[in-house]
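Complex 530.
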Amino acid sequence: MKKITSNVKKFGKLIALMVCFTQLQFCHTDKIIPAAQQLSINNIIPKPVEVNSTGDMFQITNATKVYVPPGFKDVLTIGTYLSEKLQVATGFDLPVTELNSVLPRGNICLLLINNDPQLDNEGYRLTVTDGFVLLEGTTAVGLFRGVQTIRQLLPPSIESSTVQNTNWSIPTGSITDYANYPWRGVMLDVARHFFPPENVKRLIDQMAYYKMNILHLHLSDDQGWRLEIKSWPNLTSIGGSTKVGGGPGGFYTQAEYTDIVNYASSRYITVVPEFDMPGHTNAALASYASLNCNNTATDLYTGTTVGFSALCVNKSLTYQFIEDVIGEVAALTPSPYIHIGGDEASALQRADYIQFINQVQDIVSSKGKQMIGWEDIALASVKKTTLAQHWHDGNKAKTATLSGAKIIMSPAQKAYLDMKYNSSTNIGASWAGYISVQSAYNWQIGNFISGIGKENIMGIEAPLWTETIVDASDIDYMIFPGLLGYSEIGWSPETSHDWNEYRTRLGTHGPRLTAMAINFFPSDEVDWSK
Ligand code: TNX
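Predicted structure with TNX bound:
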């Protein structure tokens, strides 16, 4: 701690020097601001809190280095991440170097600063002059979020996977930015269809680019169990063997899951694992006869109907099973949260459901974690530390807030990534209606359900259920461009949300998505830049 403070002080002096330099630059800036530069500084998604354009350019060249403060491993790693991201399309070396004196002209510098009450945990400040790019944050995560802004200030071809011959300039100005809500998530259902680790990592990288910070993995459902549980091996050998429509399923070994968790954490994204129960459990019931009330294993299920399965809630083995499963996943997962589903348990009596959820909530607590459940859990006695995820019944979400629980906002008619865009979308569902790009963007989580305000809300999460989604290209098509809007709903102040302005800004991200080889839905509500 001492070292950090003294380092931060040392760099405080450096910043002072640089600030003088910066101000000089500003004093001498009386040029006319070129429209293209202003445009690029104003096209960031999610929209930053404060942007000031000064109308000049910083040029990244073959001589540019990325400077980091000595002694901060996290910042060194973030500097290296930035350098590696920029190396691909520029073809430059961009070496990462410790800053031991005044920053020489022509370079990028990441700095940790002492405290800045405006910035909050994920906030950052970015100052760009024609002489340098200075990114400051009070935390490593703030710097990581700011790095995404630097990437977005460069031409779209910076995201190409091959060297591009262009001018790598960044518009000058300053940005102060921080998150409005702490929870900005995507849920991926890997149970209805299984997706290999490389698909999940691709999604993690896409989320990071738009400052999302939660990846909720729906790891079990009627059609498949997707995480190795060492004490109950049939869950994956039998329960993981198939998928919707039949054919081979798949699962993550614990080593693969840990690798995904670590990859996400290197992008400052938290993985929240879900095992859905007491309903949506056919894959487990097919794996072990002993989990069934009649001691007979069910058949594997490859259809898409919901609400028919349930654990045997009056059997003590059921709770042993849950202890083992939650115990193993809790040990593998740094997140403070474990999601236990709890939705659509229509095969159970209400009293049994309540008793079950209360007991599972205690098991989750006993493993040192906080429980999350779909809002249906509000029927039970939810703890203040439990989170309820709103999906279709605002009254249940409201009930959960009366116990002090906070809400994750995922209303199906606005935030379900598996809903079709319109009647001609080939994949997806429509039970909650079509969700156009405008409709997905044009709402506020803080005033969507009467009686649930910002103080009750953790943030937003957009779920992708995968009954009809079979590969990475389908995932892209349903998640993009919606994810950009959800990121803005969660990150940017409500007062800055404006569909007409957003749709233009979104249009400028078309070439970026294309450069990242993302198969996005090219909605005609948006004028996509070429
Ligand atoms: C409802 S949302 C479900 C899922 C389905 C989804 C399809 C929720 C808690 N349950 O089981 O996959 O609709 O859109």
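Residues 190-358+370-498 form a domain with the TIM Barrel fold (CATH 3.20.20.80).
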